[in-house]
Design brief:
The protein is 8% helix and 29% strand. The chain is mainly beta. The chain has a domain at 118-248: Jelly Rolls. Pfam families: C1q, Collagen.
Length: 251
């Protein structure tokens, strides 16, 4: 109601101001156009412009909207969250932190299981070929871990599966052929050979073999159809056979 009352007061004051601008008893002012300020041309019979107001003042009503402002409304509902922005570039690396304190000792681990297998043997007697193949038997032991080499049969028996290295050294006989094989079970793996010569020489052969449990490795002299022999004596050891485990395959 107070707002409507103020609006009415403003309208009444505007009308009073308009009436005060027109003096009492003044003759009516005719309407004029934008070009009426020009003098009439001579002989046209037109009337000169009259004195007084050239136009009626424009009345503009101003309403102070601040007195019409209502109370503040309630807060609206929260809108849905917007989409995530693009991932920014990685930041620079930060400074190194302080050294941490020493941690507690861990539980003791299982003991490392190391497996060994090795032999090194020799022969002090010479050997000549017979009507059939024959195993090279040895009479001197340098190393025989675990007794894996059977001195009676002249064979190494595999107790630990894995990769093994083997080596044979012999001395040839004058004017006779030397013809031996390194055997795995009953299969030839490598030959050791020397042609007949008037000079005896040292010969050697080496190889590595992947052995399974209970495989056996030995040296075989060829049979008599090829006259062959190896030399040795009771003073020095001319013939040796060596082998050892490189890497076991037992997990």
């Amino acid at each position: 109601l107070m707002s409507l009352f103020m609006l009415g007061v403003l309208l009444i004051l505007s009308v009073i101001s308009l009436v005060a601008l027109v003096p009492p008893g003044a003759p009516p002012v005719p309407c004029r156009q934008c070009c009426d300020h020009l003098e009439p041309a001579e002989g046209s019979g037109g009337q000169p412009p009259l004195g007084g107001f050239s136009h009626v003042p424009e009345v503009r009503t101003y309403i102070n909207m601040t007195i019409l402002k209502g109370d503040k409304g309630d807060r609206g509902d929260r809108g849905t969250p917007g989409k995530g922005g693009h991932e920014g570039p990685p930041g620079s690396r930060g400074p190194m932190g302080l050294k941490g304190s020493k941690g507690q000792a861990g539980l003791p681990g299982d003991p490392c299981k190391v497996l060994y297998s090795a032999f090194s043997i020799g022969r002090r007697k010479s050997l000549h070929s017979l009507e059939s193949y024959q195993a090279l038997v040895f009479d001197t032991v340098f190393v025989n871990l675990g007794g894996h080499f059977d001195m009676f049969e002249g064979k190494f028996f595999c107790h630990i599966p894995g990769i093994y290295f083997f080596n044979v050294n012999i001395h040839t006989w004058n004017f006779k052929e030397t013809y031996l094989h390194i055997m795995r079970n009953d299969t030839e793996q490598a030959i050791l050979y020397a042609q007949p010569s008037d000079r005896s020489i040292m010969q050697s052969q080496s190889l590595m073999l992947q052995l399974e449990l209970n495989d056996w490795v030995w040296v075989r002299l060829y049979k008599r159809e090829r006259e062959n022999a190896i030399y040795s004596d009771d003073v020095d050891v001319y013939i040796t056979f060596n082998g050892y485990l490189i890497k076991h395959s037992v997990e």
